[in-house]
What we know:
Elements: E1 2-6, H1 10-22, E2 26-30, H2 33-42, E3 47-51, H3 59-68, E4 75-79, H4 84-92, E5 97-100, H5 105-116, E6 127-130, E7 133-136, E8 141-144, E9 147-149, H6 153-164, E10 169-171, H7 172-180, H8 190-202, E11 211-214, E12 218-221
Parallel strand pairs: 1-2, 1-3, 3-4, 4-5
Antiparallel strand pairs: 6-7, 7-8, 8-9, 10-12, 11-12
Amino acid sequence: MRILLVEDEVRLASALKQLLKEHQYAVDVAHDGETGCDLALTDSYDLAILDIMLPKMSGLDILRAMRKAGLQTPVLLLTAKDTVEDRVTGLDAGADDYLVKPFDNKELLARVRALSRRTGQIAGGDAIEAGPFRLDLNTRTVTRNGEPLALTAKEFQLLELFMRNPNKVLSKEVILDRVWGPDADVIGNAVENYVHFLRKKIDEPDLPSYITTVRGVGYMFHPDPAAGRKA
């Protein structure tokens, strides 16, 4: 899951980024509103965490720009203001949740988990379902038609990305960024190799592949194998 964090307090932003990375989230950070807004409008995120009081452009202005552009990305606002009027203003602008500083890290993570459920097909609790697959985010386990699948950590992350984006073309660049991270030193055909490994573990005999190749672009995950074609 990829998160945009816009926070001008550098130490807080660094601490939050580390916290989120420890819980398997990929995080992009901006320290001013203009940079944060550019990222929000030009890149793809599963969640945005926006401080309201920012230099150059407020978090509320970023939120309004996102909604005006038609982006439905869940947004969590961070603020030191705790009046009813402030909360109403944020929610009316299109925010999905509101967290007042200072906050406990456990509460932040709970809010992030709750909002992340809106980006995938959630079966209840912290799990995602797509077709015959059920992915448990707490135990980091996967089943197909109730039968467990033995996946490596990277295979799990790759399947999670596909399940959160069913029937959507994901470029190799997006997959590299989301699964390995923008700063990862990846050698060779890592994406192709791991898609191959994942196919061998999730595909069923005599059925089309759940993951098809979109030549020259990337890959697409089909929750219904009958809707896919073998690559």
